[in-house]
From TrEMBL:
Domain Histidine kinase/HSP90-like ATPase: from-to ranges: 58-166
Pfam families in the cross-refs: HATPase_c_2
Signal peptide positions (record): none
Organism: Streptomyces antimycoticus
Keyword list, A-Z: Kinase, Serine/threonine-protein kinase, Transferase
Protein name: Histidine kinase/HSP90-like ATPase domain-containing protein
Length: 179
């Protein structure tokens, strides 16, 4: 039996509590006289309610940006998050504009309302944007810098088909999804 088979067996009837599951797996797989360090990470995940996700597949057409700002504003109103509309519309404009201007393939916009408001823009390019400070004479290059100033976090996640640029905005405690 391989190590992966042993792990699969140990997890097949594991306790739902992550800490107890870790203890059981470690006891089943490790000899008492081990000679190396071992690390095991078990995490509990939960699917996000579909009413807290909005997603759009978009053509690479600059005219779509204005329509998506309006769609995002409607979605935020449905979620009682009107106060996040200004920032989210700016984020959507910048990230979609960059994806349409610089990337390839289909573009996808997704909003997720959980403990924070997540905005993701996916495209078919693996070139990540970089934050820069535009010179006073530059006509462009300030958008991502502005986005970074208005959200709590942002980043890039690579996929097998390209990348996702994401931003995270804090929500008022009353509007956060329960854990």
């Amino acid at each position: 039996m391989t190590g992966l088979d042993q792990l699969r067996d140990a997890l097949s009837d594991a306790d739902p509590d992550p800490e107890r599951a870790c203890d059981a797996v470690m006891a089943a797989l490790l000899s008492p006289r081990r000679t190396d360090d071992v690390c095991l990470l078990i995490a509990r995940t939960a699917a996000l309610d579909e009413r807290r996700v909005a997603s759009w597949e978009l053509p690479s057409d600059p005219e779509v940006v204005a329509r998506m700002r309006a769609a995002v504003a409607r979605t935020l109103a449905d979620w009682n998050l009107e106060e996040a509309a200004f920032t989210t519309e700016l984020v959507v404009s910048e990230l979609l504009g960059n994806a349409i201007r610089h990337a390839v393939g289909p573009v996808r916009l997704r909003l997720m309302r959980n403990r924070a408001l997540i905005c993701e823009v996916a495209d078919g390019s693996t070139t990540a944007p970089h934050l820069r400070r535009a010179a006073i004479t530059d006509e462009g290059g300030r958008g991502l810098f502005l986005v970074a100033q208005m959200v709590q976090r942002w980043g890039t996640r690579y996929t097998k088909n390209g990348k996702i640029i994401w931003t995270e905005q804090d929500l008022p405690a009353a509007e956060r999804a329960p854990r």
